[in-house]
Design brief:
By secondary structure, this protein is of the alpha/beta class. The protein is built from 15 helices and 15 strands. Helix content is about 40%, strand content about 15%. It binds 4'-deoxy-4'-aminopyridoxal-5'-phosphate. 4'-deoxy-4'-aminopyridoxal-5'-phosphate binds next to helix 6. Belongs to the class-III pyridoxal-phosphate-dependent aminotransferase family.
Length: about 450
């Protein structure tokens, strides 16, 4: 109606979205989502869409319109909306106990407002540990090509997508890249003709090379996504994680796993790292923690990390109140607790595994049919189909054509995503991350829409 048109006009005139809105096809998309229920959303014109991307960026894990989460937040806000520090932390304490019950070996939860800030906190702890324990020397933080960790200057300094970093420099020193582990693009890495476990081990060994080159006494931590999200839906091959863990132990390098996308069920386990039996020192999480019903993020650590700060109470910096005003604020953990209840009571981890396996099979069938799909991959309800111009050379499909596929799906009333727009070589993968409540028929609808769109765009 008229009011909505005015709101849309105000949005277009005054809201500064992300930078890619300066691209013509972004600004020409007139869609504003105004309502959601379950797997579906409606735009300002009342058109229904199947949401194949959980709110755009892997967030609404339990689906839209969850009254019990809204009620939990409402009840908490009326009881106590805010009080700083320990005086307002009852939901925070209850949530902390609950989340660490899913993370054996980890004990401490530091609350933040966003994934970026949670990662930033882990980076800061690594730097402090370097000062407290290693005379400031062991301060370097390794990150992986193609990974992404957030919007702050330090997170961008740990950003493995170089073009994304453009024009924000100078960056924070002490962040060092290690090679990606996307087997489909192994031919670009010059390690010979490796595949499967051998490739996984080679990609992990490349980390050791970087540590040796930099000097193990200068490397404090490594930050990795369990499954790389925006950089290409990359599931590290067998052989990768055990070797990474071994290398971290060998050189006393802390392992930071960025679960901002995978956390809270996306891959069918509470956390992505739990598929691989590894033991991280830091786990950061955000998006799915409260499925977008409130802003909440955190950095979870082991007691070993906590203890490194404990025995120097004489250090004046230990009294610096490095606490964020809204971190762990009551509404966030209240929503997050109810989110966990839903995941458990509705068996959403099991559903994610079943539906994820089904969807991966369907994507493989689509690959058999469409020459333009070079590779399909994924874990749980976190899947991708990489589009190429030529299956032999694996030359990435250009952005315009990939966007034409997502655009055609949109016209069909089905929202699917693509990996990072604007980054040549990174923006050619169709992305699927439906809510964890997805049914077989939802998945069939996502696949059919993609099938039709691929036929339309590529013939
Ligand atoms: N890490 C990863 C893996 C992400 O995908 C994102 C967000 N896209 C972030 C961190 C940053 O999280 P936030 O947007 O909440 O700051």
């Amino acid at each position: 109606d008229n009011d909505i048109d005015k709101v849309v006009a105000a949005d277009r005139a005054h809201v500064w979205h992300h930078l890619s809105q300066h691209k013509p096809y972004e600004t020409s998309d007139p869609r504003v989502i105004v309502e959601g229920k379950g797997m579906r959303v409606w735009d300002q014109n009342g058109k229904e869409h199947l949401d194949g991307v959980s709110g755009g960026v892997w967030t609404v894990n339990v689906g839209y319109g969850r009254e019990r989460i809204a009620n939990a937040v409402r009840d908490q806000l009326i009881k106590l909306n805010y009080f700083a520090g320990s005086a307002g932390s009852i939901p925070g304490a209850v949530f902390s106990e609950r989340i660490i019950s899913k993370m054996p070996g980890l004990t401490r939860v530091y609350f933040t407002n966003s994934g970026s800030e949670a990662n930033e906190k882990a980076f800061k702890m690594v730097r402090q540990i370097a000062h407290k324990r290693y005379g400031g020397k062991k301060h370097k933080i390794l990150f992986r090509e193609r990974d992404y960790h957030g919007t702050t200057i330090a997170c961008l300094s740990a950003g493995g997508q170089p073009e994304r970093n453009a024009q924000y420099g100078p960056y924070t020193p002490g962040f060092v890249p290690v090679p990606h582990c996307l087997e489909y693009r192994a031919h670009e890495q010059g390690w010979g003709d490796l595949s499967g476990e051998a490739y996984g081990e080679a990609a992990a060994n490349a980390i050791e090379e970087v540590i040796l080159r930099e000097g193990p006494d200068t490397v404090g931590a490594i930050c990795l996504e369990p499954v790389t999200a925006g950089g290409g839906v990359i599931v590290p091959p067998e052989g990768y994680w055990p070797r990474v863990q071994e290398i971290c132990r060998k050189y006393d390098v802390l392992l930071h796993i960025d679960e901002v996308v995978c956390g809270l069920g996306r891959t069918g386990t509470w956390f992505g790292y739990q598929h691989y039996g590894i033991e991280p020192d830091f786990v950061t999480m955000a998006k799915g923690v409260a499925s977008g019903y409130a802003a909440i993020a955190c950095c979870v650590t082991s007691e070993r990390v906590f203890d490194m700060f404990k025995d120097d109470a004489s250090d004046p910096m230990n009294y610096f109140r490095d606490i964020s005003t809204f971190g762990g604020c009551t509404a966030g953990p209240a929503a997050a607790l109810e989110n966990m209840n839903i995941i458990e009571e509705e068996g959403l981890l099991e559903n994610t595994i079943q539906m994820g396996d089904y969807m991966l099979d369907q994507l493989h069938a689509l690959k058999d049919k469409h020459e333009v799909i070079g590779d399909v991959r994924g874990k749980g309800l976190f899947l991708g189909a990489e589009l190429v111009k030529d299956r032999t050379t694996r030359e990435p499909m250009e952005e315009k054509s990939v966007a034409a596929v997502t655009g055609d799906c949109m016209a069909q009333g089905v929202i699917i995503g693509m990996t990072n727009r604007s980054l040549p070589g990174y923006n050619n993968t169709l992305c699927y991350s439906p809510a964890l409540i997805a049914t077989k028929s939802d998945i069939d609808e996502l696949i059919e829409a993609t099938d039709k769109a691929l036929t339309k765009v590529f013939g």
